[in-house]
C-alpha cells in the first residue's frame, strides 16, 4: 500500500456517513435484518439509502468513495447492487496505519 493509497483511504473515512456505513456493514444482521435477500451477498444499496435518510445519489457517492478506497466491494444481482466490507483491505489499512503512527 503506497502513501498515496493510504492518504486516499484516510480521506474516505473523513465523513461520518461513510464511517457509519462501514460500521453498519460490519454487522449487517443487526442493522439490515429486514432485507429480503440473503445478507451473505451483501446489503442492498436501497437499504443503505433508507438507513442514512439521505438521497440515493448522495449515498451512491459515499459508497463509490468507500469502494475506490477498497473498504467495500459490490456485487450486482439483477437490478440491485449489494455491498459488503472488504475485511482484508481494512486489516491491511489498520496495520499500515499502526506502522505509521
* Spatial gap, N to C terminus: 15 Å
> Could you give me the name of the CATH homologous superfamily?
Winged helix-like DNA-binding domain superfamily/Winged helix DNA-binding domain
Strand order of the largest sheet: 1-3-2
Helix content: 55-70%
Query: In CATH terms, what is the architecture?
Result: Orthogonal Bundle
Radius of gyration: 14 Å
Q: Provide the domain count.
A: 1
Shape: globular
Number of distinct beta strands: 3
Please state the structural category.
alpha+beta
Q: What is the chain-wise order of helices and strands? A: HHHEHHEEH
Uncertain segments are none
Description:
The chain is an alpha+beta fold. It has a single domain, classed as Winged helix-like DNA-binding domain superfamily/Winged helix DNA-binding domain (Arc Repressor Mutant, subunit A). The protein is built from six helices and three strands. It has helices at residues 3-12, 16-26, 28-31, 45-52, 56-69, 87-100, and strands at 43-44, 72-77, 80-85. Strands 1-3-2 form a three-stranded antiparallel β-sheet. A hairpin with a 2-residue loop joins strand 2 and strand 3. Helix 1 (3-12) runs antiparallel to helix 5 (56-69). The chain is globular.
Amino acid at each position: 500500500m503506497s502513501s498515496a493509497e493510504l492518504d486516499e483511504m484516510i480521506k474516505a473515512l473523513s465523513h461520518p456517513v461513510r464511517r457509519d456505513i462501514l460500521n453498519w456493514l460490519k454487522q449487517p444482521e443487526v442493522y439490515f435484518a429486514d432485507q429480503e435477500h440473503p445478507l451473505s451477498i451483501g446489503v442492498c444499496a436501497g437499504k443503505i439509502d433508507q438507513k442514512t435518510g439521505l438521497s440515493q445519489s448522495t449515498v451512491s457517492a459515499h459508497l463509490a468513495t468507500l469502494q475506490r478506497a477498497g473498504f467495500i466491494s459490490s456485487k450486482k444481482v439483477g437490478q440491485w447492487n449489494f455491498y459488503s466490507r472488504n475485511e482484508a483491505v481494512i486489516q491491511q489499512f489498520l496495520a499500515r496505519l499502526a506502522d505509521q503512527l
